[in-house]
Design brief:
This protein has 863 residues and is an alpha+beta fold. It is built from 23 helices and 34 strands.
């Protein structure tokens, strides 16, 4: 079976057993601050297992994409050297939330592996927790496995827990005997069944859970390896095309020698991780998740270097990943161009850094040799590794050529200091859900949103919160949160801000300042009672601020038009990376690698306004997620989508998934105007724009400013640019005149204050000037050196009680003397330092009174 067939067979099998198929969650955990990435199939259901969240189903099945870079057997540095472990992998799993338990879980698993995967029963073994008599009995008596093929193992192998405290329980693992030729990997674990039946308290005591749960996990790559008869996971059909890519790009042969084989495995594995992580919105950076992705990318590049590859190449492999995985994850087709752009830019940046770091490597090596050391210090190795990302094995190879080793003990000490610093500073932004909101959902206090069609709704108050506590009423002057059974108020989501307005009963008036949805289905109206009292059970009229909502709708639909216009003008690599849809403006963050030109901005604005003038109908349809994606609808990185989605279309110009509120026709937007375009990070740009009345006001203010500028320049508005150009030229003339005066002053001072002294075989020029800038000092030094040999120039400029210094050498002295080293020495005497080139160096100091001492030191050095 192919990997795709196994995945679909598993999902279909458990659907036939009453399980709800749940789409894979993002690699970025939605609300778990303890995790960098989704690293197991149960992570999206963690709050369900903890009793903090309820789902509309009690049985679920999923194929969850996972990324794991630490833990048992999963250290990043080990990937490639073993046959089974990966950074990225897919986890097949079936789950029960207080429904079925051990018997059904075991019987389902046995049925699937023997009747659907058709693994020979005589080759299957299982393990159970040593004290789990129930699981042992089911396997032995109901399944019929003989006792010699049921292993009783200890807590380390067959007892699972979510953390130090909380839900936990014994597990049972299924193994397949692959035959003696597989050596240590003869008995391969393929499926882990976890029976969460206890709660562990702070003292370690176990208490039975009232509703025990089932959590199982089977690695797709591992079971594919078994069914496809490959020696390692890297030869299965889901990964082998990437191994072939490594062979093609390097010209080496997989399996011919261990080093090349490891390198190709690393590249294959890491390409999968990079493609999926970046597709889910994780960009390479120096913090948290982004740092992990950057590390994975650089590790892949390092192994490419070992294969002899010297140019960016990983971005080309993204195409292979997408081709293999597109059927299961169609969203990869949409993000492909973007992922390739990010990967290529990061590759180019690292290779540039790599080349730039070589001088530092050489400096450290030369220093070690000069000091008579036989090794590079741990802090030197760490700086090259951490600051420059220099590969340790390559550093070791270069150092070895010079007869040096690496102080790895010192390096590890520096690494531990960094790890501790990272642990202390490590924070992941996450939306923390207060238990009270989940409680409201669990007891059915949820809201029906009718705001797509209605601005006013008759409703009933179903709950009130004051200071995070449930109350029966809110009195005049009190702030709190109101929850209604029906609401026209849109809760902040997908970048669109929440509605404001009023909730009015017979006895009171509540002004809504913001609307939020802390938990799906629960809508919180935050604000203050300005008159009377609002009580639970009150019949109320809920009215949103109509004019504000109309402004928001204009901006939201315009955001979609802007996205499409950017893709048309700049290319399909453009992807939304964040947005804010407010009432007075919109902010749109997108992926692009350079600033937009004036012509590009003009064209984008023209395209949007062209759609507005066409007055196209804005069509909203509800569709199946996969169907919508296959039709070309664009999904947004940070959004969480269910199986059914809203698809917003504007003719053939734009089609996106969106749950926000929109105008009914593009003409309702009125006018679109870009206010600014800027960078917000590597490969990320931001556009701020306005629509409708706010865009008209912006245009009026710009026009008014233009007229005021024209008036100040004494020209017409049409001549403003010409007037500014003339003004700038006049400023430049004045700057040149000022520079000429400074230069004349410096030369005059030089004649009066700079002394020439024959000093052995050298000619030495020296002196202290007043308030002369660094470029003029260099100009003077060049004049004294010009046409001379064996000449040393030592100049200083005094300003505000400090000295700026310069030492320059004639060309014939470079090699026997170093201006860079001399400036450092005299800088110490002057209370400062310096640096630069061997022929010219600059520095400074806070002790101008020590110039004569510095001069004597320089003479001593020359002697």
């Amino acid at each position: 079976m192919s990997g795709n067939e196994i995945r679909e067979l598993f999902l279909s099998f458990f659907e036939s057993k009453g399980h709800t198929r749940v789409k894979s969650a993002s690699l970025v955990p939605e609300s778990d601050p303890t995790l960098l990435f989704t690293n197991a199939g149960m992570v999206p259901f963690k709050n369900v297992f903890l009793g903090l969240e309820k789902r509309p189903y009690k049985r679920a099945v999923s194929c969850q994409k996972c990324l794991r870079v630490s833990g048992k057997h999963n250290d990043l540095e080990s990937v490639g050297y073993t046959s089974r472990h990966h950074t990225f992998f897919e986890m097949l799993g079936n789950f029960s939330f207080g429904d079925y338990f051990k018997r059904e879980a075991i019987l389902y698993a046995w049925e699937f592996v023997t009747e659907y995967l058709k693994l020979p029963k005589e080759r299957l073994y299982v393990s159970v927790f040593r004290d789990d008599e129930e699981a042992y009995r089911i396997w032995n008596e109901e399944v019929g496995l003989p006792s010699e093929r049921i292993w009783r193992l200890g807590e380390e192998d067959n007892f699972w827990q979510m953390g130090d405290t909380g839900p936990c329980g014994p597990s049972s693992e299924i193994y397949v005997d692959r035959g003696e030729e597989y050596g240590e990997e003869r008995f391969l674990e393929i499926w882990n069944l976890v029976f969460m039946q206890y709660n562990r308290d702070e003292k370690g005591n176990l208490t039975p859970l009232p509703n025990p749960n089932i959590d199982t996990g089977m690695g797709l790559e591992r079971i594919a390896s078994v069914l496809q008869g490959t020696k390692t996971n890297f030869e299965i059909d889901l990964i082998k095309p990437l191994i072939d890519f490594g062979q093609e790009i390097s010209g080496k042969t997989y399996g011919e020698n261990f080093e090349d084989t490891v390198a190709m495995r690393v590249i294959a594995d890491h390409l999968r991780a990079l493609t999926f992580a970046i597709s889910d919105g994780v960009l390479p950076s120096n913090t948290a998740r982004g740092y992990v992705i950057r590390r994975i990318l650089r590790r892949a590049l390092r192994f490419g270097y070992k294969l002899g590859i010297r140019e960016p190449f990983l971005y080309k492999g993204v195409d292979v990943v997408v081709e293999v995985m597109k059927d299961a994850y169609p969203e990869l087709l949409q993000t492909k161009a973007f992922v390739k752009g990010v990967v290529k830019a990061e590759e180019e940046r690292f290779l540039h850094t790599f080349r730039n770091s070589m001088p530092v490597v050489e400096e450290f090596i030369n220093t070690a040799l000069e000091e008579g050391r036989s090794f590079l210090k741990g802090e030197e190795v760490f700086k090259l590794y951490d600051t420059y990302g220099f590969p340790l094995d390559l550093l070791e190879e270069i150092a070895k050529e010079k007869g040096l080793s690496l102080d790895m003990e010192g390096f590890e000490k520096e690494m531990e200091i960094q790890r501790e610093r990272a642990r202390q500073n490590f924070k992941i932004q996450t939306k923390e859900v207060q238990p009270i909101y989940q409680h409201l959902k669990n007891i059915g206090r949820t809201s029906i949103f009718v705001g797509y069609e209605q601005y006013v709704a008759q409703s009933k108050v179903i709950a009130l919160l004051k200071n995070g506590e449930l109350v029966s009423e809110l009195k005049e002057g009190e702030e709190g949160e109101v929850f209604l059974d029906i609401t026209p108020f849109y809760a902040e989501r997908g970048g669109q801000i929440g509605d404001t307005g009023t909730i009015e009963s017979v006895d009171g008036l509540f002004v809504v300042d913001d609307t939020q949805s802390p938990v799906d289905g629960v809508i919180s109206h935050k604000g203050k009672v300005v008159k009377g009292t609002i009580k639970v059970g009150d019949q109320v009229i809920a009215s949103i601020d109509r004019e504000r909502r109309e402004d928001i709708k204009r901006n939201h639909t315009a955001t979609h038009l802007l996205h499409s216009a950017l893709r048309l003008v700049l290319g399909e690599h453009v992807r939304q990376a964040g947005s804010l849809v407010a009432d007075k403006y919109l902010r749109f963050d997108f992926t692009h690698f350079q600033a937009l030109s004036v012509d590009e901005l003009k064209r984008v604005e023209e395209l949007v306004n062209e759609q507005i003038r066409k007055n196209e109908p804005v069509i909203v349809e509800e569709k199946d997620y996969r169907e919508a994606i296959k039709e070309g609808a664009i999904a947004i990185f940070e959004e969480k989508y269910g199986e059914r989605v809203r698809v917003l279309s504007v003719g053939d110009f734009s089609k996106e998934l969106c749950g926000g509120t929109h105008v009914s026709r593009t003409g309702d937007i009125g006018y679109f105007k870009i206010i600014s375009e800027s960078s917000i990070g590597a490969g990320l740009r931001r556009i701020v724009a306005k629509t409708g009345r706010w865009a008209v006001e912006e245009a009026f203010l710009e026009s008014l400013t233009l007229k005021q500028v024209a008036q100040s320049l004494g020209v017409s508005t049409e001549e403003v640019l010409e007037g500014l150009s003339k003004l700038q030229e006049r400023v430049k003339e004045l700057e040149r005149e000022l520079q000429r005066v400074k230069s004349e002053s410096a030369r005059k001072q030089a004649k009066e204050r700079i002394k020439e002294e024959g000093f052995g075989e050298y000619t030495l020029f020296y002196g202290v000037l007043e308030d002369v800038e660094g470029d003029l000092l260099r100009e003077l030094a060049d004049q004294f050196r010009q046409g001379r040999t064996k000449t040393v120039v030592f100049l200083a400029s005094k300003r505000d009680g400090k000295l700026s210094t310069l030492i320059a050498l004639s060309k014939d002295l470079v090699g026997s003397l170093s201006a860079k080293e001399l400036i450092k020495e005299v800088g110490k005497v002057l209370g400062g330092g310096g640096g630069g080139r061997d022929d010219l160096a600059q520095g400074g100091g806070t002790k101008p009174e020590n110039f004569e001492k510095a001069l004597e030191l320089l003479k001593e050095k020359l002697r």
